[in-house]
Specification:
The complex is a heterodimer.
Chain A lengths: L1 H31 L7 E4 L2 E4 L17 E5 L4 E4 L5 H14 L4 E5 L5 H4 L10 E3 L1 H22 L13 E2 L3 E5 L2 E8 L6 E6 L4 E9 L11 H12 L5 E6 L7 H23 L3 H4 L6 H4 L4 H18 L7
Parallel strand pairs in A: 4-5, 5-6, 6-7, 11-12
Antiparallel strand pairs in A: 1-2, 2-3, 3-4, 8-9, 9-10, 10-11
Helix pairs in contact in A: 5-6, 6-9
Chain B lengths: L1 H24 L9 H9 L4 E3 L3 E4 L3 E2 L5 E7 L5 E8 L6 E7 L5 E6 L5 E9 L4 E10 L16 H4 L3 E7 L3 E8 L16 E7 L5 E7 L8 E7 L7 E6 L4 E5 L3
Parallel strand pairs in B: 1-9, 3-9
Antiparallel strand pairs in B: 2-4, 4-7, 5-6, 5-8, 6-13, 8-9, 10-11, 11-14, 12-13, 12-15, 15-16
Classes of the chains: A alpha/beta, B mainly beta.
Chain lengths: 320, 255
């Protein structure tokens, strides 16, 4: 009886505190649920919207991701639709401020929530992704919305997981006066679509490349990711747009991603070979080279949860 | 004005509720509203002290609430008889209880967390006093009410109870790490009854016990445990155990 009443009391405190907090944030939000999207022109016909190099929060509303669009003579091609319904609505308004041309195509680079939860705003437009990406969106999309709502609150209101409707594979496709090479890779997730605009030399790398923001690994396969980065190095691009962080005109973003992932892989493998336990691995020092990169400490801890058991399994003896 | 009054009302409700909860928290460094109740339930009237020699390690945030790594390390506290591990806000509070009879008083394992919660180790010394350490681990939840992953594979019964192990020999101490194939079903996932390992014991060739663990539903599926020994582990170390359905576990620890 005492236990039950204490539990109710505990829940009461929680509800009261969160209710207070949410009233407060709604009051603020009425004035400020504005992602302040400012397209930045990086090449002919090509704009990017640079997200913050942060994790999902109630202050950034999930604007932690890069989206982009290319204005072709036939209409606008959008690369990734952002983390929420609200974001994609504001993205469409931002596009309309640049060009009167309609959006005619949306590509999702992969199935992570910050890259496709704006799809529902493009119900009038073909939305396309790799088959593995669409399958990931179908399997995990609903859970992603719950999680993003938990992390970012009101910004996510009304967002529904809307998987891409059209399957694309590797190949070259002309849209208006632009020729896009679609490159089907994997490693960050099971399906990572890279778009290379041959007309401008801009490479949209999705989350295969992070720049000055630590890479995330919840669906990563390291060997495939390294192979994908090698493939990107073989492309002569003029500008690379990473999934997170500033666009660059040289190889440094690919190289930073590669060096970081190599460190993660080596750190986890060596720890497993030493017999370290997961709780001990969490405490490993992040090398100076990466410690200034935003979220490197947090993402390394997440990577331990995602990947360590794979390395550990190989160090134990035969089953008996 | 109306809104202002609403906000003030909530603020007042917060203060009253917080005041009541504060009384229940007592001197708990983790400020858990459950603590006084749990202390009475698990430790009775024995003396209880919060003691930094009982160190609990783990992530600040549980990225995978089905596999939250936890380390218990007790140093400089003599005559530890048994150690209880609890998670205050889990639907099943008791995680495991261990007794290091010759092994060092430390243990690593992984557990399920249903929501953010204190995770505590409570070590009882020979004089009956409980020494308590703990950390707060935040979690998005669902770790206890989801079905085990292995249930989705048809052949989980073939590997049930299989053990993999290894010994790492350091200069002053050694570590035994082992994994056991078992679904560790909590009974909280719809339609799946509780099915979990209840008891594990590390024994040497003569049958002497070096470590015993009573495990409960919150221990992770296919559990992994690490034990530390001063010097080398005893020769002929064997893991013996059973689950709540009477299945036996028995395996020689790989040397």
């Amino acid at each position: 009886m005492i236990a039950a009443s204490l539990r109710i009391l505990a829940r009461g405190v929680f509800v009261a505190v969160t209710l207070g907090a949410s009233l407060h944030s709604t009051h603020l939000a009425a004035e400020s649920l504005d992602y302040r999207l400012e397209p930045r022109r990086i090449a002919d016909d090509t704009w990017v919207l640079i997200g913050k190099t942060e994790d999902f929060s109630r202050s950034n509303g999930g604007n932690i991701v890069n989206t982009a669009f290319v204005v072709t003579t036939d209409g606008v091609v959008v690369v990734d639709s952002g983390p929420s319904r609200l974001y994609a609505e504001q993205l469409r308004r931002a596009i309309a401020r640049i060009t009167p041309k309609p959006v005619i195509r949306v590509f999702n680079t992969h199935h992570h929530p910050d890259h496709f939860l704006g799809n529902q705003v493009f119900a009038d437009v073909p939305t396309a992704a790799l088959a593995t990406t669409i399958s990931g969106q179908r399997q995990e999309g609903v859970a992603f919305v719950d999680n993003v709502y938990r992390l970012s609150g009101d910004w996510i209101k009304g967002t529904e997981s809307t998987p891409a409707r059209e399957t694309v594979g590797a190949g070259v496709t002309a849209i208006g006066n632009h020729e896009f090479e679609l490159i089907a890779l994997s490693g960050h997730t099971e399906g990572d679509l890279v778009l290379f605009d041959r007309s401008t030399g801009v490479l949209f790398a999705g989350d295969l490349v992070f720049y000055n923001r630590a890479p995330t690994t919840p669906h990563a396969t390291m060997a495939q990711w390294f192979a994908a980065l090698d493939r990107l190095d073989a492309i002569s691009y003029r500008m690379l747009v990473p999934g997170h962080g500033d666009p660059v005109s040289d190889r440094r973003a690919v190289e930073q991603t590669r060096r970081y992932l190599r460190w993660v892989e080596r750190a986890l493998r060596e720890a497993a070979e030493r017999g370290d336990e997961m709780a001990e691995v969490l405490g490993l020092a992040v090398p100076a080279e990466f410690s200034a990169i935003p979220l490197s400490r947090e993402e390394f801890a997440r990577s331990v949860a995602h990947l360590y058991r794979r390395y550990e399994a190989g160090t134990l003896g035969r089953p008996q | 004005m109306l809104r202002l009054r609403g906000v003030l009302g909530v603020a007042a409700a917060c203060l009253i509720a917080a005041g009541n909860a504060l009384a229940a928290m007592g001197d708990d460094p983790l400020q858990s509203p459950q603590w006084t109740d749990l202390k009475d339930r698990y430790l009775g009237t024995a003396k209880v002290v919060f003691d930094p020699r009982v160190a609990v390690s783990g992530p600040k945030v549980a990225e995978d609430s089905m596999n939250v790594p936890v380390g218990i390390r007790i140093t400089g506290l003599p005559d530890v008889r048994r150690v209880l591990v609890i998670a205050d806000l889990n639907p099943i509070v008791k995680v495991l209880e261990f007794s290091s009879k010759g092994a060092m008083p430390s243990l690593h394992f992984r557990m399920k967390l249903q929501q953010g919660s204190p995770v505590r180790a409570m070590a009882q010394t020979a004089d009956g006093v409980w020494h308590v350490g703990g950390i707060w681990i935040d979690a998005s939840g669902g770790g206890c009410t989801a079905p085990s992953v292995g249930r989705s594979s048809a052949n989980w019964t073939e590997t049930l109870g299989q053990v993999q192990s290894r010994v790492w020999q350091g200069e002053a101490q050694s570590r035994v790490k082992l994994s056991i194939m078992h679904p560790m079903d909590t009974g909280l996932a719809p339609g799946i009854p509780a099915f979990y390992i209840e008891r594990l014991s590390l024994q040497d060739a003569s049958g002497k016990e070096w470590m015993t663990i009573d495990t409960f539903e919150p221990v992770s599926e296919n559990p992994v445990f690490s034990f530390d020994f001063k010097g080398s582990p005893p020769a002929g170390l064997t893991l013996v155990g059973r689950d709540n359905n009477g299945n036996r576990i028995s395996a020689r620890v790989a040397q």
